[in-house]
Amino acid sequence: MSPLPPQPLSPLDGRYRAAVEGLGEYLSEAGLNRARVQVEVEWLLFLAERGTFGAEVPSAEQARALRTWATEFGQAEIDELATLEATTRHDVKAVEYLVRRRLAELGLTHLAELTHFACTSEDINNLSYGITLRSALHGVWLPAFRTVVDALRELALAQRDQPMLAHTHGQPATPTTFGKEIAVVVHRLQRQLAAIEAVDFPAKFSGATGTFSAHLAADPDADWPALSREFVTQLGLAWNPLTTQIESHDGQAELFGRVAHANRILHNLATDIWTYISMGYLTQIPQAGATGSSTMPHKINPIRFENAEANLELSSALLDSLAATLVTSRLQRDLTDSTTQRNIGVALGHSLLALDNLARGLGEIAVNPEALAADLDANWEVLGEAIQTVIRAEVTAGRSSIADPYALLKELTRGKRATAADLAEFISGLDIGDAAKSRLLALTPATYTGAASTLVDYLDA
Fold first, then answer.
1. In the chain, where does the domain assigned CATH 1.20.200.10 lie?
2. Pfam families recorded for this chain (predicted)?
């Protein structure tokens, strides 16, 4: 057997690449290295533009040229870094050497020793991960998440009045509306959206063990913590003053926990939509040219929701592992986080793929009013709750002498099918007031939805 040409091992980089490639801009190795270059350049310019150690202040044109090179990081830099790292066997050191080369090309050799000044590799790495993760979250994942939430909100509003038989424990239960049930999901997701949007990105920039020791050895008079804070915050990150060699990763753990929570709500949605499709409450809109089954031509399989379900499980498992692992580091530093963090893109990638499938799937389904109505009409016994509750109110008001209304309705309805005629006959013979009797006789499973429709308004509350 001839060997295959090099192939992507992960389906995210193969079969599903088009759906997740936006994350690769930030959470790939190249995206990380671009951020590392940016941090190294910004740090040396931060020092040089203040004339630190008497350094010659670069001209505006020189600073702009260096920043432009850093932001235009591309294939040439990727290849050059690979060559450098093959010799250094150290990824961050290779970045430092790459920056030094560009300084020489731009006539800024006199600033070379400010490159990576007083930094440990983790100073560069944690800022770089903060930059890339923030960009990936706000530029790629959150927009996809909002697209799904918006589609669900639109569905909730459109179907707010559509009666539907509820099922608690898998059994027919007090009716609701389809829109209200979708609104429940939207409300849950909106809460997670707010929590995820509120996450900040802590970062440290304080040397080998978080003490600014090398900084103060070089200049004992400088306020290095204040300079560190200024530098970190100007990059849009939150300064962490108390760390070991590494930033403690608590912020990342919080973020991954919240995304995993959102994933699980979406997973609940995917399995419910799948179930509604299997019950006939939702129909699937045929897509031109699509095949539902390799052997059964009639089928339209709910693959969007099945794909989402599986990818949400994978994403949550990875995010849980990341959150659990990253908050632990032996003494002042171990290297486990280096390997772990390289899988952030994979974890978010599976979530992003699920969001893509959910967005597509929601556009390929339609509510089936006829099926909903038929199921409601076949389950008149769900009005037993309403009847026994009205009797209780009538007894309390002194308009009825019925003893134990619950037992009375239990005998009539539990485990039995009751027809409209059965209930009408039963209600007509009840010892209750005329107004209450009229309300019950007018009630149907389709109208017994309480405040379900108006509860949808709480999405805007």
1. 136-286+299-369
2. ASL_C, Lyase_1
* Rounded Cα gap, residues 339 and 331, in angstroms: 18
Q: What is the CATH number of domain 379-448?
A: 1.10.40.30
- Distance, in Å, from the CA atom of 101 to the CA atom of 83, rounded to the nearest integer, reads 13
Region 11-119: CATH code:
1.10.275.10
What is the pTM (predicted TM-score) of this model? Answer: 0.93
CB contact set of 427 (below 8 Å; sequence gap of 6+): 387, 437, 440, 441
Q: Which of 92, 159, 75, 94 is nearest to 126 (CA)?
A: 92
pLDDT digits (tens), the chain, 461 positions: 888 888 888 999 999 999 999 999 999 999 999 999 999 999 999 999 999 999 999 999 999 999 999 999 999 999 999 999 999 999 999 999 999 999 999 999 999 999 999 999 999 999 999 999 999 999 999 999 999 999 999 999 999 999 999 999 999 999 999 999 999 999 999 999 999 999 999 999 999 999 999 999 999 999 999 999 999 999 999 999 999 999 999 999 999 999 999 999 999 999 999 999 999 999 998 776 565 655 555 657 899 999 999 999 999 999 999 999 999 999 999 888 888 999 999 999 999 999 999 999 999 999 999 999 999 999 999 999 999 899 999 999 999 998 888 888 778 777 778 899 989 988 998 999 999 999 999 999 999 999 999 999 999 87
CATH label, 136-286+299-369, candidates 3.90.1440.10, 1.20.200.10, 1.10.3980.10, 3.40.50.300: 1.20.200.10
